[in-house]
Amino acid sequence: MSVRETARQPEDVTRLFVERVNSKDLDGLVELYEPDAVLGFPPGQETIGQDAIGDVYRQLLAAGPRFELEEPLPTLRFEDLALTSTRAADGTGGRVQVLRRQPDGSWRRIIDRPELPR
After folding, report:
1. CB 33 within 8 A of CB 114
2. pLDDT of 60-94, one tens digit each?
3. Number of C-beta neighbours around residue 8 at 10 A
4. What are phi and psi of 19, to 5 degrees?
5. Is the overall model pTM greater than 0.90, yes or no?
6. Model confidence pLDDT, tens digit, residues 5-27
7. Does domain 12-113 have CATH number 3.10.450.50?
8. Closest residue by Cα to residue 83 from 73, 93, 92
9. Rounded to an integer, what distance in angstroms lies between the CA atom of residue 70 and that of residue 84?
């Protein structure tokens, strides 16, 4: 079993997400989320928990997407929480994530909205 890189800073999560989508690493994608995380996808729906998030990403990876890293906006931090975001290159408006620092110092998503309406 290989050991995956963990997000040492909140900004690392987006880079790791892109790398893992492009390498079709489903388990690695799911590890970026806390067990009860909420994903605002598909649009207009909430997907709750790692198992359900894994099901969403299994379908996504089957479609064979290739993602590019997007320019991050400044990260906002409050204690063990962080808000990260990017302007979406695909015209969906933007992407926003709330992360929480884990006991080992790494960061995971607790709320993820990958598409914001313009």
Report:
1. no
2. 999 998 999 998 999 999 999 999 999 888 877 78
3. 11
4. -60, -40
5. yes
6. 999 999 999 999 999 999 999 99
7. yes
8. 73
9. 12
